[in-house]
Write the structure tokens for this entry.
Amino acid sequence: MTVQLLKGNVAIAEAAVRAGLEAYFGYPITPQTELLEHLSARMVELGRVFVQAESEVAAINMVYGAACTGVRTMTSSSSPGVSLMQEGLSYIAASEVPCVVVDMMRGGPGLGNIQPSQADYFQVTRSAGHGDYHPIVLAPASVQEAIDLTFLAFDLADQYRHVVLLVGDGLIGQMMEPAEMPEMRPIRPRPDWAITGAKGRSKHVITSINLTAEENEAANRRIQARLAVIRAREQRSVEHYIEGAKVLVIGFGTSGRVAQSAVKMAREAGIPVGLFRPVTLWPFPEDRLRALVDDGVEAIVVVEMNAGQMLEDVRLVVGREMPIALHSRLGGAVPLPEDILEDIVAVAQKLGLAGPETVR
Amino acid sequence: MTLHEDLVRTVVYQHPQALEAISTHYCPGCTHGIAHRLIAEVIDELGIQEQTILVAPVGCAVFAYDYLAVDGVEAAHGRAPAMATGIKRSLPDRIVFTYQGDGDLAAIGTAEIIHAAARGEHITTIFINNAIYGMTGGQMAPTSLPDQRTTSSPFGRNPAIAGNPIRMTELIAAIEGSAYVVRRSLHNVREIRKAKKAIKTAFRVQQAGLGFAMVELLSACPTNWGLSAPDALKWVEEHMVPYYPLGDYKVLDAVKALEDRE
Amino acid sequence: MQEEVIFAGFGGQGVLFAGQLLAYTAMDEGKHVTWIPSYGPEMRGGTANCTVVVSDEPIGSPLVSRPSIAVVFNNPSMIKYRDQVKPGGLLVVNISIVEATTRREDITILNIPATETANALGETRLTNMILMGAMLAARPVVSVETLRQTIIERLPKRRQDLLALNLEAITKGVELAQAQLVARA
């Protein structure tokens, strides 16, 4: 492997190819279009499936069909497009077939804009579509991490036969950074549950319908049992400057990355602050966060490019008593390290961890 | 099923292998059963049971995969052509078909069917047009006729308010990418025989890789029409056929050559 | 060491490419680097800019409110970025087409006749290389020698005919900047 300068969207697309993506279906939308464009060439070169669908609705249902045949399949979009995919995602989750969906989030609601945003947090972590489930949600903060998590996304999708969302934003998608691209993996064999034509075996049916309450409750219990396993095993997070941290800054993806600069500045000013960056948004890395809080954290600064959606998950973990400040940018605005630093200093001052003249 | 050797020579009817030997949930007089049977016979005759994949719709035929003895999936409402696209592209040597009603294909799934046709997807679509929403209990469908009374057009469909019925076969036939697009009916034996022939051609079009194929089948829904089974068939003939003329709307030369070889 | 550079100008002036070239060079020097463009409808409107952060340490925010260096290719970019450069920073101005001025005395300002010089070399598209050479003469974010190597190694085959001209343009940029820096010293 050699280090290359890679653009986030292209890196994810190529990583998907190398992770064994066999069928891609998508619809152009900024800021993820380079992903689709890259695959429109690569998939065809490799004799794999690429279809530009007539809508995100069609794209996700094409993914659904391909997933039923047992191939590694994915689509990619951005917030308004992911809204249109909610129906299909729900069917896929209920049918227990694996797929990967990339959401390069943009400013909403409505048409909003194409600037970086994290306002899809609820849409992706709570339940993508109707019904009662959580998809697995991965949030990279760099091009390298986007590549690594793309590989992981396909593996987790297979392992749990579940929907895995990889969420970034225009900043992750449009940014170029040095990164290493793993070698091409061989296409994995089709799983035995796939729909391939009932040759030499009894017929397979993949459906999301369970007409009676009893049947559907049983199906739901099965999904919930699997989610419980995922929740226990797959929490992931990254920490920086965590040693002795009394103030904990929490942010995912771009917010976490920007916050890292602020935390570094604050540490240089002598404030005992650390960064906790969730990598899995669902399952939220609650176990590790709880351990950190028990280890002496006195206050939390949540940094998000939304109105505080992840903050609700943080609150569930840390309880009512813990002071939490929210540094929130909305509608496509990206936080700046200096502004986050101000909030860190203010919180530290309240706790008596920083003097009135700290950092100017 | 084993029969005595002497009897085998005189068999005039046999349950198709591709049709499960169970009773359906369809209402008395419903023509879904006939359509299923024709498809099963065609699958048997073409010897494609082990390579065929059904994409079932949302609507009365939601359980079609229970009745046909082939691998099956169940699509979201209207999305069967998109799902079939994903399947066919991933398994190009299998036979993939959608079975869709009028609400599924001509209302909520209009975009999906048109674009599947425009891409010339190598899939087969069986389109059941009974001019009503059956599963939800008799509401107006995109293909309900002018003045037709339904539970959501209680004074009869008024095109000025509720719009006009859509002739999907004519629409799809106009699309580059469709290879075989015909309308048949299930209201009498003669038409049923013709329907079967068309279904067979539509599957053979897919086998030959000639493009998108669709057979529209005018069908009866006695329950939601409030008619007896015989009257419902008569209603198809007297009201639906005049609005939805039977015939071949698109038959590529390559498809004609297929038919000639038959 | 961390430098935050904004390149800004019209689409077609090689603004994004200049940023990418800096990013490739920084990577070749083993430094941490991020490159991020403006994107979307703004791009179609004819203005283009990109931000390059080069650092000895892993980079947190790839976006900056106050760059340490701004390279402005046209007048609107000058107006937009002249006040944003950090005190002690560098403003490289394509004086051939920029009319706006600044009275700032807390930054280094280089007025480089880049478009004219590029035209004199026979190729307007060399404007970006001249500005890049000037920038590096005043502020060695990366070494000019590595930049040359990077160009030699990464210039697409179909553009090889422009190799010598590109290298010459960089030299011109360096010379124009040094003349101004020496005159001021």
Chain C has one domain: 2-184. The domain at 2-184 of chain C is CATH 3.40.920.10 (Pyruvate-ferredoxin Oxidoreductase; domain 3).
